[in-house]
Amino acid sequence: MLRRMLPLMVAGLFAAGVLTGYNVVFAQEITSDAKELDQGANTIWMVGAFLVFFMQAGFAFLGAGLIRGKNTVNYMTKSFMDFAMASLSFWAFGFALMWGTSAAGIAGTTNFFLTDAAKGQTYVDWVFQMVFAATAATIVAGAVAERTRTQAYLAYSFIIGAVIYPIYGHWVWGGGWL
């Protein structure tokens, strides 16, 4: 069986190489353009961020399937609002506490409301970390479904996005003590 299939597989790979414009690349022809590499890396970070963003929908559907039908709309609204609240709080305070100039390794002290943000890379970093901060706020949603008031849950989401996730992130990634 394999002996009959081998020539077909080789022919298929050859045809795929010819049709896709396969070229042999030698080391002498390689040129490095840092701007193009940086743009490609930013694209990868953004794709990763949007994949994490779509986890929000997964958490919302999972939680909605685990609760009573009469509370489904309330739960879905909380799932949307916790992302919005955590995102706004991370924009206002969280990113600065996480990536700002370190004060004794505890938290950042600059760049609140992204005021000192440079073009490009800072915004990519913000989006990437923002979706993780919002996801951290969403994880608890299933445990407190049907048990908390909306205002209390939104306050919790604000605190996660503004303080808890960013300070721990600063300790680990932002030049802190861990």
Automatic annotation (TrEMBL):
GO terms for cellular component: membrane. Keywords: Membrane, Transmembrane, Transmembrane helix. Residues 45-178 form the Ammonium transporter AmtB-like domain. One of its GO terms (molecular function) is ammonium channel activity. It is found in: Membrane. GO terms for biological process: ammonium homeostasis. Its main location: membrane. The keyword Repressor does not apply. It holds the Pfam family Ammonium_transp. The chain crosses the membrane at residues 43-67, 88-114, 126-145, 152-173. This is Ammonium transporter AmtB-like domain-containing protein. It comes from marine metagenome.
